[in-house]
Specification:
By secondary structure, the protein is of the alpha/beta class. Helix content is 44%, strand content 16%. The chain is elongated and about 80 Å long.
Length: 348
């Protein structure tokens, strides 16, 4: 068996010689190919470890036609992403799953309209194997960009387009937003609250619309003056709460479409001298510990598994890429709706 000289970088040929197999067999093992008997796989992997072999990325890409990288596209500006713990939790879930499959995460952010062209060029350049996209808004160009680039993509959140223009279903992962909202509002109603307001998210996002629909499912004759629109930020929740109190000073409960807006609403309620939950009961959505546990009183909220959704998105994409690589053809698009549950704390 030939051994690499001291200080030199081990080659695939050296791995093959060390394992006592052909170069083709060593290549199939290193590049994840099928059709190699388990004893030979073990020999090659042992040789890789003993020699400290590191595959040449460019050569490996030519052989496997895989870059070993996935783009994560978030259709929000940087300041929103790094100030909202929702995004960090979802990225953490994605990162854990990709890391477990030896795949790199490439983060692409949308600061403004000009960034879409940059993202389109990057995806078309073949730098990544697939994409994960979330926090998209109505008429967002990202779906069209990924289709033009023939880029396998899984979306976070129910798309506003349920069927793509080519009549192919869209794979996505989302929480049961409507069901969770129904549970939250029914809980407030069961407490005997009569004037239940809603602080919704932006109407160009399906999660906000689904949560508004859940609110209306329970309160079929809801007074429209009890509904205000926010932007999933703490400040927008504060503004919406102030508007609601000005319009409806007799309100006795609030369902906010996320925890950040609920936190902003709680601040305004205190400033206006309303005790929570004695005067006004308050429920949020997300159950982000950094928000729900930090408020005073701690926030009653609807829990969704944000990190788990990130992992599911990555898992669906990687599974599809593996199926294509093995010649099984494009995978059947899949959607996953994860359950939600109400976490009762002191604000309601």
């Amino acid at each position: 068996m030939s051994e690499p000289s001291p200080g030199s970088r081990p080659t695939l040929e050296a791995v093959a010689a060390h394992a006592g197999v052909s170069r083709a067999t060593a290549s199939r093992v290193v590049n994840g190919g099928a059709g190699v008997r388990r004893p030979l796989v073990d020999k090659v992997l042992r040789a890789v470890e003993e020699l400290g072999y590191v595959p040449n990325h460019a050569a490996r890409t030519l052989v496997t036609r895989r870059t070993g990288a996935v783009a994560v596209i978030i259709a929000e500006p940087e300041i929103r992403i790094f100030s909202d713990p929702f995004f960090s939790q979802q990225i953490r879930g994605i990162s854990k799953e990709l890391t477990a499959h030896d795949t790199q995460l490439v983060l692409l952010l949308v600061e403004g309209p000009g960034d879409y062209e940059r993202i389109a060029r990057y995806l078309a350049g073949g730098h990544v194997d697939g994409a994960l996209a979330f926090s998209l808004h109505t008429d967002d160009p990202i779906p069209a960009i990924t289709r033009r680039a023939a880029m396998p993509t899984v979306y976070g959140g129910r798309p506003s387009w349920t069927v793509a223009p080519d009549h192919q279903a869209v794979p996505y992962v989302d929480a049961d937003n409507r069901g969770g909202a129904r549970e939250a509002v029914q809980y407030l109603r069961d407490l005997g609250r009569l004037r239940i307001a809603h602080i919704g998210g932006p109407r160009d996002q399906t999660s906000a619309n689904d949560r508004l629909d859940g609110y209306r499912d329970v309160l079929l004759d809801a007074d429209p003056t009890l509904i205000a629109e926010g932007a999933f930020t703490e400040e927008s929740g504060a503004r919406a709460m102030a508007e609601l109190l000005d319009r409806c000073p007799d309100l006795d409960a609030v369902f906010a479409a996320n925890d950040l807006m609920a936190s902003g609403a709680l601040r305004v309620l205190k400033e206006r001298g309303r005790a929570v939950p004695r005067d006004v009961a308050l429920v949020g959505f997300d159950d982000m510990d950094s928000v729900a546990e930090a408020t005073d009183p701690p926030l009653t909220t609807v829990q969704q598994d944000i990190e788990g959704q990130g992992r599911l998105m990555a898992r669906l994409l990687l599974r599809g890429l593996d199926q294509e690589r093995e010649g099984a053809g494009p995978p059947a698009p899949a959607s996953v709706i994860t359950p939600t549950m109400l976490v009762r704390r002191a604000s309601a």
